[in-house]
Amino acid sequence: MIVRILTEGQLEVPDSAIDELNALDTKVLETCQAKDEKAFREALDTLLARVREIGEPIPLDRLVESDFVLPMADSTLDEVEAMMSDEGLIPG
Fold first, then answer.
1. How far apart are CA 56 and CA 10, in angstroms?
2. Domain residues of the chain, as ranges?
3. Residue 48: pLDDT above 80?
4. Which InterPro entries does this UniProt record tie to the protein (predicted)?
């Protein structure tokens, strides 16, 4: 699957990672709903770090559609909440 992190680019992430990423995404969603800024920051940082860790960067000259888009690392809680659906950032 193709994941875009805003302002960073796209990464190709193994489909087998979807359950792990959904669990991390759920934590981001829960912290947004709780308006817990500290926990939100940690949850978002963990999600983005994991995507970077397991993803393979896609060259900038290769145009591919993203399966989902994650916020930039310095996004605020309110900005991320505005990006979310009822399922979070990553569709289930």
1. 8
2. 2-83
3. yes
4. PspA-assoc_dom (IPR054437)
The Cα–Cα gap between 25 and 30 comes to 9
- Helix (H) or strand (E) holding 25, with range, is helix 18-34
Reduced to 3 states, what is the DSSP secondary structure of residue 1?
coil
* 70 within 8 A of 52, measured Cβ to Cβ: no
HEC-encoded secondary structure of 30-74: HHHHHCCHHHHHHHHHHHHHHHHHHCEECCCCCCCCCCEEECCCC
Quick one: angle between helices 18-34 and 37-54, nearest 10? Answer: 160
pLDDT per position as a tens digit, 51-64:
999 999 999 889 89
> Which residue matches tokens 């970077």?
52
